[in-house]
Amino acid sequence: MRYKAVVSYDGTNYSGYQKQINDVSIQGAIEKAFRLMTQIDIPTFASSRTDKGVHALYQVLHFDADMDIPQERWVEGLNKRLPGDIRIKSVKKVNDDFHARHSSKSKTYIYKVAKKPSSAFTCNYEVYERGFDINLVKEDMKAIVGTHDFTAFSPNKEGKPPVKTIYSFDYKETKTHYIFKIHGNSFLRYMVRSIMGNILAIGTGKKPVGHIKTLLETKERTLTAKTAPACGLYLYHIYYK
Fold first, then answer.
1. Domain residues for 210?
2. Are 92 and 83 in contact (CB under 8 A)?
3. Which of the 8 DSSP states describes residue 100?
4. Is 51 a catalytic residue?
5. What pLDDT, on a 0 to 100 scale, did the predictor assign at position 196?
6. Which residue numbers in the chain have pLDDT < 50?
7. What is the pTM of this model?
8. 183 to each of 28, 47, 229, how far by Cα in Å?
9. Quick count: other Cβ atoms within 10 Å of Cβ 74?
10. Residues 172/181, Cβ–Cβ less than 8 Å
11. Residue of 51, 68, 97, 133 marked active site
């Protein structure tokens, strides 16, 4: 039987989602919990391989298991064996052709920019840039929306197709943060953090207004600003049918 699980996690203490031989990963911790619960090795397949320090509010994975266990028992049993910064939110049976990554239609990420310097208790979950002016970035945010070649926004060592469609890129302002939200059909590695790095640079006057359009037109990665820190980034939602 194939199961779909929704997971949330704080990525601060992990090398990233994907399992690695010599580092502590989210996937490694989850598969260890499966092994402790069932006494067998159960491989998992995730929708997104988030990087070191990136968080997730809604990560999706699938796994196959020849055992008919109710959702609540999967959730309870796995969470008992997971560290507190990784939580299984739900588990349900799905069709055998469901694939956490290949079946996804689009993804949404959010990025948190603080309005004041971070404290010892918030520094792993936001980014602060002194002098950031939201009014400087509004036009550049509009330029991101649509179908573009995002070569300038990723090293793309995997050689994946660089043309992606961004459905929306907006922000919400609270008393303490600017929370940016970007929704697209898929993303290159580091693409969202690179976009946000350029937004932060424009908002602080390090890059000129209109810089995003220049990057999209020239596809020149050497012109891009520094990639934004991972700690401000959250995988927000994965959309399927």
1. 106-235
2. no
3. T
4. yes
5. 98
6. none
7. 0.95
8. 28, 15, 19
9. 22
10. yes
11. 51
Taking the C-alpha atoms of residue 232 and residue 177, their distance in angstroms, rounded to an integer, is 11
Verify that 67 and 112 share a domain, yes or no: no
Please report the pLDDT score of residue 20 as a whole number.
Answer: 85
To the question of whether residue 109 is assigned a binding role by annotation, the answer is: yes
Residues 134 and 230 in one domain: yes
The answer to whether residue 73 sits within a structural domain is yes
95 close to 6: Cβ distance less than 8 angstroms: no
The pairing of strands 86-94 and 2-9 is antiparallel
- For residues 209 and 123, what is the distance between their CA atoms, to the nearest angstrom? 28
The reply to whether 241 falls in a domain is no
Calpha distance 29→24 (Å, rounded): 7
pLDDT value of residue 157: 85
Contacts 24+ apart (CB under 8 A), 27-34: 29/82, 29/83, 29/86, 30/61, 30/78, 30/82, 30/86, 32/81, 33/78, 33/81, 33/82, 34/63, 34/78
In this predicted structure, what is the pLDDT of residue 84?
97
- Claim to verify: residue 110 and residue 229 sit in the same structural domain: yes
d(CA 60, CA 103): 11
